[in-house]
From TrEMBL:
Organism classification: Bacteria, Pseudomonadati, Pseudomonadota, Alphaproteobacteria, Hyphomicrobiales
Name of the molecule in the record: Flavodoxin family protein
Domain of life: Bacteria
Pfam family, one: Flavodoxin_2
Ranges of residues in domain Flavodoxin-like fold: 1-208
One MF term in the entry's GO annotations: NAD(P)H dehydrogenase (quinone) activity
Family to which the UniProt record says this protein belongs: Belongs to the NAD(P)H dehydrogenase (quinone) family.
Key words, A-Z: Oxidoreductase
Organism: Undibacter mobilis
InterPro entries, sorted: Flavodoxin_fold, Flavoprotein-like_sf, NAD(P)H_dehydrogenase_qn
Amino acid sequence: MNVLLVYAHPEPTSFTGALKDIARDTLTAAGHHVEVSDLYAENFNPVAGRHDFTTVHDAKRFHYQNEQGHAHANAGFAPDLAREQQRILKADMIVWLFPIWWGGVPAIMKGWFDRVMAFGFAYADGKRFDSGFFRRKIGMLCLTTGGTVERFSAGNVYGPVEQVLYPTQHLMVEYMGMKTYPPFVAYASPRIDEAGRKAYLKQWSEKLLEIAAENAPREAAQA
């Protein structure tokens, strides 16, 4: 299985970084091919604009979605976007790893979705959810929180984590038609002790092996 880890954290020694490392090492040891898009280390630009394209659909008025569709039809994406799109096409499984900031993904990862998951490439009219382009791919979120599991519970201050993650889980990952699993959440990771962190890493490693075994054998494919 080919796995792409899309990782967004500015600090390599963060617990989010540890989850990324465990995912890479666990899946590699199990015989899978793993590639990492390290958005901060690769200086990924999250800001959309005409620099996203080597083609021009309308020079007078910049309509981002129209420019994306034109670029997709004419091999006109900028090199950084073409690189990320090729990584996606090769992947059987994509895992997004990030800390939850202000109730969502960090800006650099939101910009990755905006720029990389372009119209024509990742979705189109009539190609969403059950009819999406990426129905043969697996998508999963892996995240860390500062808040405790109690705070992310029904009736508590933040609400259920499923509710908090709805825009990312449903309107981004599931929107593209991917087979999804419940997000892996490491709650209160800055506050728990070393034993708690090790338990999270063990659970994460086991979950990845379980998913890989459930979906083997798979061949990398563009839907």
